[in-house]
Amino acid sequence: MGEWPEGWARDTRGGRREAGDRARAAAPSGAGQRPPADPTQVLPPSTREYGPQRGAHPPPPFANRRPRRRRGGGGVLRRVVTVLLVLVLLLLVLFLYFYSRIDKVDALQDYEGRPADRPGQTWLLVGSDSREGLSEEERQRLRAGRAEGRRTDTIILLHKPSGGGPATMVSLPRDSYVPIPGRGRNKLNAAYAFGGAPLLARTVEQVTGIRLDHYTEIGFGGFVGVVDAIGGVELCPKRAIQDRRARLDVEAGCQEMEGPTALGYVRARYFDPKGDLGRVERQQEFLGAIIDKSTSPGVLLNPFRLVPLGNATTDALTIDEEDGPVDLVRFALVMRAVSGKEGVRTTVPVADPNFSSPVGSAVRWDRDEALRLFRSLD
Hints:
With about 375 residues, this protein is α+β, with helices and mostly antiparallel strands. It has helices at about 10-25, 75-100, 135-140, 190-210, 220-230, 260-265, 275-295, 295-300, 305-315, 325-340, 365-375; strands at about 105, 120-130, 150-160, 170, 175-180, 185, 215-220, 235, 240-245, 250, 255, 315-320, 345, 350-355, 360-365. The strands form 5 sheets. Strands 1-12-7-2-3-4-13 form a 7-stranded mixed beta sheet, with helices on both faces. Strands 5-6 form a two-stranded antiparallel sheet.
């Protein structure tokens, strides 16, 4: 019992190896031998033999998993596009809401002898200084004085040519001495006092020979509300201004002006040796500044600026009853274009800025030069 069978040794592993060697030696050549491994064939993981008996090592973790695909930029791009579309939709809804609140007037009426249609688009832009509806506190804040009735301080032609040329802004001084249909000759702003927007529009068409396509009017307090809504505008007086009637006291140089100060700067004329013509220049400066800032990303993308701006604008704005939302957008774009470097800002040619007329000191146009200017607006 103590002896091992022939051919076996006490070392079980070693004995077995010896027995296996003798058996292989006795077997025919090639029998019992594994064929050489084919390096091009890889056994699936389920058929591989691992373990310390074979001297192999297990594969590293996740060695047989397919690499994950990295997410491309498509997902980020889709999210950005979605956000932009939502913002555009919100702005569109907000714009249509504000448009629905704007007052409309039948300003551009047909009449016998009305100028024919011309290429391009022409707006009549009017700044009304009517005090109607202002409380005593508002009169004090706006330095509006005690004047009654309907007046206009600002009368501007805004033209966009059909051929894609630069937009043009032509100021018509309010004291221009012109014929008013059915009223004889008088100052231009008297047409608004006599017959409101329709008579003013007809008067402008008759003296310029240009058929108006659109009418836009902003009320006295509207300027102040718009300026305050966008946080003030930068204006650049060339010299210090002190005007007791306008309650204006500002230093020379560029500076931010809040609503009442900006309105006083635009309306004041008694300090200015140019009188009404000097005020026209400041009106153009003011309109350019307010359009630049109100259409800037800092306002359009800021709801705390955009919503008050929309409320202030729609409360003060009046447009022709035929003007739709698209016309309002076009007006804003043309105003922005004319306030830029490519736009043209001018005043109707004047022969006598202090013309003595039956209705007081007025502005007399250089009729030939004025007609040449108006005919160039195609």
